[in-house]
Design brief:
Number of domains: 3
CATH topology of the largest domain: Rossmann fold
Oligomer: single chain
Largest sheet: 6 strands, mixed
Number of helices: 15
CATH class of the largest domain: Alpha Beta
Strand content: 15-25%
Strand order of the largest sheet: 3-4-2-1-5-6
């Protein structure tokens, strides 16, 4: 049966192309959605850009015919603007002049006209209200990926004989035909298809304590090249950090994109900064011009633009976590580090004054071609899929981009663990020869005993 999808404003503000995402089904845009889009069209951020793009798309469709009667879409359905159903009765107390409720009137009216009406909205409360009035509602699913607990982790535990593991240590590579997986329920061996650049904990079938670490290069399992390195004096303390260090240390010509997901305290930002400083300040051949740090929850628009000071000074409150990590990296002696706060602050300030480390708002990356930069996108779980695409495609020659974040700590009102840009990039870039990625385990938290204990306890469903 043909369906009628009603689009909420928030869907078009995030993904204008959603208009074309429903195949041969009909798409309806309530008139009030146009009013809401109009409020955003002058904004200079991504929301404003999406409102303007939606307007251009609707204008192009308008030239094809009467939008109130419906115009054909490429997939076989029709798009129409809906002006009716103003007299539909909603539960008592629901204000009829509220935009969300005007949209619900359209949905209910179409349902009462025997259309299989489905509201598509990013607003969870709007979906709940639909349940109250008997209207079907769903999230916009085209950009959804697998949930983090079942999605690609970039790492796997596999098995081989002790003899083959010893051979791997000696030759620094191993044919994957000697590697197998083990069914946790039955204990039976079964084949496993490795993904390009996937990291492997190779465990002996005879003894679980006999292990080796490697990476699948597309043909064979190879040993980690940088496992003994100590970038900027930092030593990897667990398996996840060793994998992360390997991905970060690899040349940007080979791996220009690194994606690291994981809970707080697993040293994601810390290692990204440590390797960046090592590449710029320690290695004889300087590979990168500077470290560029961005956070997607920073909106460098009118509200921040009028603040006094330079761009770096305006963004400083939002970059405090970066400064905290730099303080640790610049003075490794934890007993002496904070005895002279002024001296420590001067060391951090020097990195910014010399442009070794710079900070920018996400909005300023759009349209650029970034050359020979070490780019860290912190809190990337707050990116939209469109934003993450815009960032990754900005990478010019000699640039390495590191996406870091925790899918369980999303602040964006219309994103979740399956629609955020970090997980979207992880799923889409899985198997790319240009991308290494991994998910840190909760028990790899090294910040403090409390941070480790809370990461394990608070991620457990009670």
């Amino acid at each position: 049966m043909k369906k009628t999808y009603i689009l909420d404003t928030n869907v078009l503000l995030q993904t204008p192309n959603a208009i074309y995402a429903f195949g041969d089904n009909d798409v309806v845009i309530p008139e009030v959605v146009l009013e809401e889009l109009d409020k955003f069209k002058k904004e200079s951020n991504e929301i404003g850009a999406n409102a303007r793009q939606t307007a251009r798309m609707l204008d192009a469709l308008r030239e094809m015919g009467d939008l109130t009667r419906g115009v054909p879409l490429p997939g076989g359905g029709n798009l129409r603007l809906e002006l009716n159903f103003k007299d539909i009765v909603l539960p008592e107390g629901w204000h009829t002049d509220k935009a969300d409720n005007r949209i619900l009137k359209v949905c209910k009216g179409l349902s009462e006209n025997n259309e299989k009406a489905i509201l598509v909205t990013k607003d969870i409360f709007q979906r709940i209200k639909c349940d109250l009035i008997g209207v079907t509602a769903q999230d916009f699913k085209n950009e959804q990926v697998d949930a983090p607990d079942v999605g690609y982790r970039g790492r796997v535990v596999l098995y081989a004989s002790a003899k083959k593991i010893n051979e791997f240590y000696k030759k620094e590579s191993l044919d994957i035909k000697y590697i197998t997986s083990v069914d946790e329920a039955t204990g039976e061996e079964k084949p496993y298809t490795l993904i390009l650049n996937e990291f492997v904990v190779l465990t002996s079938i005879e003894s679980s304590k006999h292990t080796a670490l490697g990476r699948f290069d597309g043909e064979k399992l190879v040993s980690l090249k940088y496992i003994e390195e100590r970038p900027f004096g930092v030593k990897a303390r667990n398996v996840g950090q060793k994998f992360m260090q390997e991905a970060l240390m690899m040349n940007c010509d080979d791996i220009p994109l690194v994606i690291v997901k994981g809970a707080a305290g697993t040293a994601k930002t810390f290692f990204a900064l440590a390797v960046g400083l090592h590449k710029i300040m320690v290695q004889k051949e300087k590979q990168y011009r500077k470290i560029l740090v961005c956070r997607p929850n920073v909106k460098f628009d009118e509200d921040i633009g009028f603040l006094p000071g330079s761009e770096t000074e305006k963004l400083a409150p939002f970059m405090r976590s970066v400064i905290d990590n730099l303080e640790i990296l610049l003075d490794s002696d934890e007993y002496e580090r904070y005895k002279n706060e002024s001296e420590l602050r001067d060391k951090v300030d020097e990195l910014f004054h010399r442009n070794i480390v710079t900070t920018e708002a996400i909005a300023f990356i759009r349209g650029r071609s970034i050359q020979k930069n070490w780019v860290i996108i912190d809190e990337a779980q707050n990116l939209t899929p469109k934003q993450v695409k815009g960032i990754v495609t900005r990478a010019g020659k000699g640039t390495k981009i590191i996406l870091i974040g925790d899918p369980d700590q999303i602040d964006h009102p219309y994103l979740d663990s399956r629609t955020n840009g970090l997980c979207y990039a992880s799923e889409r870039m899985k198997g790319s020869r240009y991308c290494c990625q991994l998910t840190m385990n909760d028990d790899e938290c090294e910040r403090s005993p409390l941070a480790f204990d809370s990461a394990v306890r608070m991620n457990t469903i009670i």
